[in-house]
Amino acid sequence: xxxxxxxxxxxxxxxxxxxxxxxxxxxxxxxxxxxxxxxxxxxxxxxxxxxxxxxxxxxxxxxxxxxxxxxxxxxxxxxxxxxxxxxxxxxxxxxxxxxxxxxxxxxxxxxxxxxxxxxxxxxxxxxxxxxxxxxxxxxxxxxxxxxxxxxxxxxxxxxxxxxxxxxxxxxxxxxxxxxxxxxxxxxxxxxxxxxxxxxxxxxxxxxxxxxx
Length: 212
Fold this sequence. Notes:
Elements: E1 21-25, E2 31-36, H1 37-46, E3 50-55, E4 62-66, H2 68-85, E5 91-96, H3 102-117, E6 121-127, H4 136-149, E7 154-163, E8 166-173, H5 177-211
Parallel strand pairs: 1-4, 5-6
Antiparallel strand pairs: 1-2, 3-4, 6-8, 7-8
């Protein structure tokens, strides 16, 4: 018969801690040392705090004196803020030819910059054709040139490496996706406000002209 066990997601607190002794940490992070759990509970009660088991797998388990209710509230707030600010970072892909002219290089570099400014990662790919495979150093040189061009907006996350007939490099944005989304939203609101202001000015000029 299979035994199912409930997964405990919250730490044990106060009288739920059923071990003879704990390595106690004070409310400011100070190391108190190994004490009997009864003594740790007494210290918690005297300080009007909770005894919280923070490292149950340690020997002995580590417990900390803290305001557990406040701790739970702050943790929940951080998780909510993280979810609110989180946006899925996409991986875009741009292909370069080894023998690319300056105009095409600038155009594709502009695409990479646009993706990075939008908060997305970019996989830059060079596909080698024929004898080009014997000159991988040229691919590295081209990708290093690109990395220098986009350094204001992104940094190299994965350096150039060969994968069959392809050489790949991944660049990551310097700012988070959520920041880019928020900035784009703010800019759209500014544009709408500017348009409303212009419409208001035209309306006022029309009204004055009619009055005259």
